[in-house]
Each structure stands twice: as structure tokens, then as C-alpha cells.
């Protein structure tokens, strides 16, 4: 009796995006981030395509509607900011220096200027968005806890306080190109960071602001 033979499985061909397609997608996300910060989430999509140097068809091929593009921008920015926090925690033994690096990186990414768009433009409970948000919030708390435990961060400051201040200091006025004020943003953020150092030189009104406080505001 002839032994049965087992056919080798046929390897499936995996279709990978072309390098130029990936570059176009990255250019769209980058242009959208800048224009959302400058003009808000209702900026015309054809203007985003023009700044990205792509056609409207390319934009819609990657992002079928405005919600998909806004969500991708916000998730991308939060992921990059979380990476900055991870690197700050890993690369320095000084807890407050790690916090400082994270704050400046957050300003560069415009995370706090973009995140408020979530509640007004699309489903803020989308799984991708929730995962990105949970990751960055966990890392912010870890960075601050480390600085507080080291006695370098005043104890009456919460994560919400940090994010409100970064949002206010890093968002340009409406209609202002978002990269034209960077030299002022980082100067003012450093003044803010100096005010976070322990020991505190004043008593803050109210109580430390949490992320939950911000969500309920």
C-alpha cells in the first residue's frame, strides 16, 4: 500500500504597501497634523492634500473620510509621545530630566492641541484611540510618579495640571503656522517646568487635577 503524501502548504503572497505609498500616507498625516493645529479639524481635505503634495484621490484612498484621518493623526501623535516618554525613562537616571524631556517632546508633537478634537469630531471610544490614549496616560503617570518619589516634583501637581499647561503653552493662535512659534514655546515650557520643581515656593489654589477631572470638565 502506497504511503499517503502530505502536500507542502502553499505560501501565501503577502501584499505590502509600496514605499512610495507609505511615504504618501506619512506626508498626509504630517500635513494634517499641522493644519489641524493651525486651523482646527474642519480644514478642507483638499487643502491638506495640497500641503502634503498629493492628489485628492491619494488622500481618500488612504483615509475614506475626515474621521479616519483625524483619528489616525491623533493616534500617531499619542504613539510618538508615548515613545518619547519611554525613551526618557530609559535614557536618564534623573527623574525630573525625564519629565522635562517628555514635556518638550509633547509640545513638538502638538499632542495636547490635537487631543481635544477627539470629543467633538468622532467616536472617542474607538479601540485604536482608547489603546493609544491609555498607553500615553500610563507613561505620563509613570514619569511624574518617578519625579515625585525622587522628591523633585512638587506633590500638589497632577497629570491633568501638566497636560492643561502643555496644551496652553504649545498651541499657537488660530491661523498661525504651528512651527513659527517653537522658539517661544520651549522657552515658556522651561519656565513652567522650573515652577514644578520641589520644594514648592507657593500654595496652589484647589487640588491637583487628574485626567478624570479633565474628562468631566
Offer a concise description of the structure.
Residues 44-63 bind DNA. This protein has 217 residues and is mainly alpha-helical.
Question: Care to describe what's here?
Answer:
The protein has 217 residues and is mainly α. It has a domain at 70-216: Tetracycline Repressor, domain 2 (Orthogonal Bundle), CATH 1.10.357.10. 65% of the residues lie in helices and 0% in strands. The protein contains 11 helices and no strands. It is elongated. The model is unreliable at 1-7 (pLDDT under 50).
Q: Would you identify the CATH architecture of the domain at 70-216?
A: Orthogonal Bundle
Task: Compute the number of helices.
Answer: 11
Order of helices and strands: HHHHHHHHHHH
Largest sheet: none
Question: What structural class is derived from the secondary structure elements?
Answer: mainly alpha
CATH class of the domain at 70-216 equals Mainly Alpha
Radius of gyration of CA atoms, rounded to a whole number: 22 Å
| Overall average residue pLDDT | 81
Write the layout of secondary structure elements.
Layout: H1 19-39, H2 45-52, H3 56-62, H4 66-91, H5 95-109, H6 111-114, H7 118-121, H8 127-149, H9 159-170, H10 182-196, H11 211-216
Features:
DNA-binding; 217 residues; Tetracycline Repressor, domain 2; 0% strand; TetR_SbtR-like_C; transcription cis-regulatory region binding; mainly alpha; 11 helices; TetR family transcriptional regulator; 65% helix; single chain; elongated
Amino acid at each position: 500500500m502506497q504511503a499517503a503524501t502530505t502536500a507542502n502548504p502553499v505560501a501565501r503572497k503577502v501584499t505590502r504597501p509600496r514605499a512610495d505609498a507609505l511615504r504618501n500616507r506619512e506626508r498626509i498625516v504630517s500635513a494634517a497634523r499641522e493644519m489641524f493645529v493651525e486651523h482646527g479639524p474642519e480644514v478642507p481635505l483638499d487643502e491638506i492634500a495640497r500641503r502634503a503634495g498629493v492628489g485628492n484621490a491619494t488622500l481618500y484612498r488612504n483615509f475614506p473620510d475626515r474621521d479616519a484621518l483625524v483619528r489616525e493623526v491623533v493616534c500617531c501623535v499619542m504613539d510618538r509621545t508615548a515613545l518619547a516618554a519611554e525613551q526618557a525613562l530609559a535614557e536618564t537616571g534623573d527623574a525630573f530630566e525625564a519629565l522635562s524631556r517628555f514635556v518638550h517632546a509633547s509640545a513638538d508633537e502638538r499632542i495636547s492641541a490635537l487631543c481635544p478634537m477627539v470629543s467633538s469630531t468622532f467616536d472617542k471610544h474607538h479601540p485604536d484611540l482608547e489603546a493609544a490614549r491609555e498607553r500615553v496616560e500610563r507613561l505620563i503617570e509613570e514619569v511624574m510618579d518617578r519625579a515625585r518619589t525622587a522628591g523633585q516634583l512638587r506633590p500638589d501637581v497632577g497629570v491633568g495640571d501638566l497636560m492643561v499647561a502643555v496644551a496652553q503653552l504649545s498651541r499657537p493662535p488660530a491661523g498661525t503656522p504651528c512651527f513659527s512659534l517653537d522658539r517661544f514655546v520651549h522657552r515658556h515650557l522651561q519656565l513652567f517646568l522650573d515652577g514644578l520643581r520641589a520644594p514648592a515656593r507657593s500654595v496652589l489654589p484647589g487640588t491637583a487635577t487628574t485626567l478624570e477631572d479633565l474628562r468631566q470638565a
